[in-house]
Amino acid sequence: MTTRQDAIPLVPEDWQRALAIVAHPDDLEYGAASAVAKWTAQGKEVVYVMVSSGEAGIDSMPPSEVGPLRSVEEVNAAAVVGVNEVEFLNYADGIIEYGLPLRKDLSRVIRQFRPDILVTLSYHLKFSSGHLNMADHRSVGLAVLDAARDAGNRWIFPELLEEGWEPWNDVRFAVVLGVDESFAGHGIDVTGNWEKGMDSLRQHRAYLDNLGPAGARTFDFLTAHARQTGDKLGCEHGLLAELVLINEPWE
Q: Which DSSP symbol is given to 64?
């Protein structure tokens, strides 16, 4: 195991409010929820925003049934790690497009919740495993970063002012998870919180059951990866992250 001084730097934790924005229910539960469990245990406030309800995620069930089911599972999963507020934007699962409508809606929620930091998934073509990162994740991840700037500019989407949402220009940085190691310049030590994150993932019973044996193997795969990352960070379980500075001062 590497020592702390040899490892990559950890994501700063001198903040109080985080807004986690992802495309689907369960996106945060493949690792990020362990970081959320750590942060809420520290007394930080974390709010989840799901751009879709994941209604296209189970082949054997119609979307009209899957969306409400997966929404309930996400609310239950969030509660496990101390998150009491989950918002759904009701975009169509599988065909979320990057563009001005999405940027405006995300700017609205950022102005509404006024977070110190944002959390999202990779906007890059591939995940750290080398597998293709689906279009919804890429669209949402990039839109989150752009919306962080949009939210602070009163002349972008001025209709939000008419709705009563004043600009919020205090998002310090975004934590982007699920990134390839070539983009990951920071880490998160989730030792002591890993299992709570996995318990959060277990709330997605319908989705995991739909995956069959692959769903059962997910926990071993994720845990092995967290241990490998922990070795790089000098801890038991860890996550790699890309830190994108939004309004941090220039050094």
A: H
